[in-house]
Every structure is written in C-alpha cells, then in structure tokens.
Amino acid sequence: MKYIYLLFLIVLSKTLIAQSKIDSLEALLPSKKGLEKVELLNELGNAYCHVSPDKGIDYAQKAYTIALKENSKKDIAKSLKIIGLNYWLKSELYLALENHQKSLKIYQEINDIKGICSLYGNIGIVYKELSEYENALKYYLKSLEISDKEGFNIIP
C-alpha cells in the first residue's frame, strides 16, 4: 500500500509541475508573434503531450500554420513531429506515422541530422506499436547508426 501511495504522489507531482510550466508558457503567448510564437506554440504542444494530447495537437497545428506562412522549414518539421508525438500518445498510430514521415521528409530536405535521427527513432516506435517489427528495426537501426556516427549520447 505504501508503494501505491508513493507512486500516486510521484505521478501527481509530475502533473502539477507540467501544469505549472504550461501556465507559464500560455501567459507568454499573447506577447509573441511570428517565429517566436511558433516556438512557444510548439513548446506548448510538447508540454501538453502527456497531459492532454488533443490540446498538444491543437497548439502544434497552430504552430504549423504560422511556420508555413513564415516559410520556416525547420519549424514546419518540428510542428509535424510534435503533432505525430501527440497522435502516438493518443494511440492514433497511422496519424502519428503520417505526421512523422512528413516531418522526416522536411528534415531530410534541410539536412537536419538531429531531426532525421530523432524521427527515425519515432517512426521505429510507431512501427513497433503497429507490430511491424521489421520496419521498426529498420528505423531503429537508422537512428542508431546516425547517433553513433554523430556522437549523440541521447537520441534527440
């Protein structure tokens, strides 16, 4: 019983910390414009992923729309990655895969090695969840190869 109570306290504290961060980010939102707003919206999309993936998707889609207008490929790719992450957490795996693949394509166009490495890992995770183990392994190995070559300690 003691361990259940401890686990409950840990989960509760993580949720409260996440909500505090979200509140701080949302308070900054009205003062931001352009790419600064995109960055903040993506942070919110990421912050909401474990609290409310639907809100995470909403914020990341807003970031995506502005990033398109600003023609910032790196921010477009990041928004799509965050949308994919939130869909994965909702177990909407095909939508997660679709957004991750779109993000990967853009990261490849701009030769963003960390982005490519991260997306290979994310796509591998989605394929694993879909029980497509050969595809999962293929993407995990691509991610690992880049990580080893570039000296990444943690896959970004």
UniProtKB/TrEMBL annotation:
Keywords: TPR repeat. This is Uncharacterized protein. The keyword Lyase does not apply. TPR repeats lie at residues 117-150. InterPro entries: TPR-like_helical_dom_sf, TPR_rpt. It holds the Pfam family TPR_12. It comes from the Bacteria. It comes from Labilibaculum filiforme.
